[in-house]
Every structure is written in structure tokens, then in C-alpha cells.
TrEMBL record:
InterPro entries: Nudix_hydrolase, NUDIX_hydrolase-like_dom_sf, NUDIX_hydrolase_dom. Belongs to the Nudix hydrolase family. GO terms for molecular function: hydrolase activity. This is DNA mismatch repair protein MutT. The keyword Ribosomal protein does not apply. Residues 1-134 form the Nudix hydrolase domain. The keyword Hydrolase applies. The lineage of its organism: Bacteria, Bacillati, Bacillota, Bacilli, Bacillales. Transmembrane segments: none annotated. Keywords: Hydrolase.
Amino acid sequence: MLKYNIAFIRSGDRLLMLNRGKAPLLGLWNGVGGKLEPGETPLESVMREIEEETGLRLETEAVRFGGTVTWEVDGRDAGGMYAFIGEVPGDALPALPMETAEGILAWKPIDWVIDAENYGVVQHVQHFLPAMLAGEPCAEHRCFFREGKLLTVERRPLQEVGC
């Protein structure tokens, strides 16, 4: 079982992104999420994290599992996260951008988030998010890092319930 989750909340052609206010990933845009608590399923955990970090209370039907993202850092397994895509109406969180305990929440255009030349977004997001947003079959997205730099991302079939 993985220790973390992440959610990318979509409203039309925008994604709700968090500019992290602390390490790791200080100053980079990413989805919202965090650690699974003891006894939580990945879905329960991501629903809790979405509410804690954004104030949004989504119905479980508005959130779908997109796959997993795992890391190999300097030749060693370094864990990973369950990834989810959420959908909200266009008028959700109209008072953004907003500073929170975790960083700055803001709506960002999807094309901006997944642009390979955008170095303000966590570097592996552009490699797994397009497939998840497109509703492609669930997969493990295995990210290989060496000395802090992303080398490659491999997409592997995933046989999880709900894929």
C-alpha cells in the first residue's frame, strides 16, 4: 500500500492547483493531497485531504481513481501515491487565489499545467496527468529520478479495482 494521495480538481478547462508553501516541493504547483491515515482507504484519504486543503466537500461520485505514481530515486524504490481526478462546477471556490496553511490555491489552465516547458509545476506531473485527464485506463506511472532530476517515466498496466 502506498503512503500518499494526490487529487487534481477540474472545472472545465482549469485545474485547482496548490503552490506549496513548504518543503518538499516548496514553490512548485501541484495537486492537493497528503498522507493516508491508519485505516483509511485511498479514496477516503483523498476525500479528507481535498476538504482539508481546499474546503471543498465533493461527493465520491465526483472523484475517480486515475492510477498510481511511483518513484525510483537514485536506483532505490521511494514509494508513491494514489492519483485522483475530481470534477467541480465552474463556480466552485470563486474567491481564488487564496493563501492557505499549505500554500496558495489557484485555478490554472490545464494547458499551462501540462506544458512541458513549465518549470513551475512539479516536474513529473506533465508525464502522468494528461492520460488521467483523458480518462485513459488506470496505470502505474513509474518515475525515475537521479540526483533530483527526472530521467524518464514509464507507464505500466495497473490491475486495481475501479480501473
